[in-house]
Design goal:
13 strands; alpha/beta; 8 helices; globular; five-stranded antiparallel beta sheet; Rossmann fold; 245 residues; Arc Repressor Mutant, subunit A; single chain
């Protein structure tokens, strides 16, 4: 069973969410502040985080940034904030999904399952597929499917969120080809999100900060105006037994 952490300052809401998600097969822990949430994540026992933005001690976006500084654990935002700008800021900071209150708990449970599938990679391949041993190599970088991470030319492990990994895998699996935003959206299973273009653009921006020498002048992930993106370097495929580099 997956261990879910609910970071929500309203006791009643936290209790309701916890009770519902427990019936859906999750182990649920609940805390009422950002600092408590960070401490729980640091135990290494949490599989996915449900994070409210309106916390008493820290703004939820700051909590999200601190999570991303230490972990690629999936994070789903729940918030009263309805503006598009709030969604984009959360995505930019590393959120995997964003749900506006009030919401149907069944939708929340469904989105959590999608995020977890992306995290494990099961949405992209079957259990019998040997892709779990595959590496994609480009310009000294290695994208490893077994561990779902990225190794830099200096052999530094770069943590990727589930959406970042799936997007980079889609781009690098079709080198030198132009992929539309709609096609790329399919690769990260985010059809429910809007607007499509900005969601992909934000994720590309995040990847560029991790991959490019100068994100303002990208050499790897190149924009094709009016259509989408192209992975602009050659890619080779290798097998990595047991996910070793």
């Amino acid at each position: 069973m997956r261990h879910l952490l609910v970071v929500e300052d309203e006791d009643f809401s936290r209790s309701l969410l916890s009770a519902y998600l427990e019936t859906g097969g999750f182990i649920v822990s609940g805390v009422g502040s950002g600092e408590q949430g960070l401490a729980a994540i640091d135990t290494g026992k949490i599989d996915v985080v449900l994070l409210d933005l309106g916390l008493p001690d820290l703004d939820g976006i700051e909590v999200l940034r601190r999570i991303r500084a230490r972990s690629a654990i999936p994070v789903v935002i729940i918030s009263n904030r309805e503006r598009l700008e709030d969604r984009l800021v959360a995505l930019e900071a590393g959120a995997d999904d964003f749900l506006v209150k009030p919401f149907d708990p069944r939708e929340l449970a469904a989105r959590l399952k999608v995020v977890l599938r992306r995290s494990s990679g099961s949405s992209q391949r079957s259990e019998s597929d040997s892709q779990d041993l595959k590496e994609l190599r480009f310009e000294g970088w290695k994208l490893r499917f077994a561990t779902r991470d990225l190794i830099s030319p200096d052999q530094v492990e770069i943590a990727l969120t589930p959406s970042e990994f799936n997007l980079l895998a889609a781009l690098a699996s079709a080198p030198l080809r132009v992929l539309s935003r709609e096609k790329l959206l399919d690769s990260i299973a985010r059809k429910e999100d809007a607007p499509i273009d900005r969601t992909i653009d934000v994720l590309v921006s995040r990847l560029r900060r991790k991959l490019e020498t100068d994100p303002r002048k990208p050499q790897l992930i190149v924009t094709v105006p009016g259509f989408g993106y192209r992975f602009a370097v050659s890619v080779t495929e290798a097998m990595s037994p047991n996910g070793a580099g």
